[in-house]
Every structure is written in structure tokens, then in C-alpha cells.
């Protein structure tokens, strides 16, 4: 698939359509970058914590080792759950504030 130029171009076009449609609706760059920043925050905060929680659960279910050489207090389930919950709360707060600011 990676060598097929037609498929690569098709998927690049498909990836560019949603932002173009969104640009017709919202014309202020500040609002666009605010929502794009939320997307980056979602990618950086709750997803890695969720992956850590689920991968440990997956390993336990299959009887695999969950401890590695890199384990520390920061890689415990409690930390991952705390980061996940606090980042979701923060993102909800940010999205509500963005929605309120967008209406004004």
C-alpha cells in the first residue's frame, strides 16, 4: 500500500477534507487553534494513561509479566488512573470554556 501512489494521494485528500469543511464554518484562526490544541492535549494526556492501564490488564489476563526494568512509582496503576481522570476533567473544563467563549 505504501508504494501505491494513487492510494496515498487518495488518503491525503480524504484527510484534508474535514479541515476544509470546518474552515467554511469557523473563520477565526484563534478558535481553530484552540480546538486543535485540545486535540493535541487529548493525544498527549489521557490516551497514554489509558494505554498503560489497558495493556497491564491485557498482560494480567494472559498471565504475562507486568513489571519491566523501567517500572517505577510513576508507572503504577494508581498514577495512570489519576492522570487519566484528571486529564479528562481538565479537557472537559477546557471544552466548556471554549464553547462559552465561542458563543460570545
Strand content: under 5%
Major sheet description? none
SSE string, helix = H, strand = E? HHHH
Number of helices: 4
Structural class: mainly alpha
Number of DSSP strand runs: 0
Short summary of the structure?
This protein has 104 residues and is mostly helical. It is built from 4 helices and no strands.
Walk me through what this model shows.
With 104 residues, this protein is mainly α. The chain has one domain (27-103). It has four helices and no strands. Helix 2 (29-44) runs antiparallel to helix 4 and helix 3 (46-61) runs antiparallel to helix 4 (77-103).
Annotate the secondary structure layout.
Layout lengths: L4 H21 L3 H16 L1 H16 L15 H27 L1
Helix pairs in contact: 2-4, 3-4
Keywords:
104 residues, mainly alpha, 4 helices, 77% helix
Amino acid at each position: 500500500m505504501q508504494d501505491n501512489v494513487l492510494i496515498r494521494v487518495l488518503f491525503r485528500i480524504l484527510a484534508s477534507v474535514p479541515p476544509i469543511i470546518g474552515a467554511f464554518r469557523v473563520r477565526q484562526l484563534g478558535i481553530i487553534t484552540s480546538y486543535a490544541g485540545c486535540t493535541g492535549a487529548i493525544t498527549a494526556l489521557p490516551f497514554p494513561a489509558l494505554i498503560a492501564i489497558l495493556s497491564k490488564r491485557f498482560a494480567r489476563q494472559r498471565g504475562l509479566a507486568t513489571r519491566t526494568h523501567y517500572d517505577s512509582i510513576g508507572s503504577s496503576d494508581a498514577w495512570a488512573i489519576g492522570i487519566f481522570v484528571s486529564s479528562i476533567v481538565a479537557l472537559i473544563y477546557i471544552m466548556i470554556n471554549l464553547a462559552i467563549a465561542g458563543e460570545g
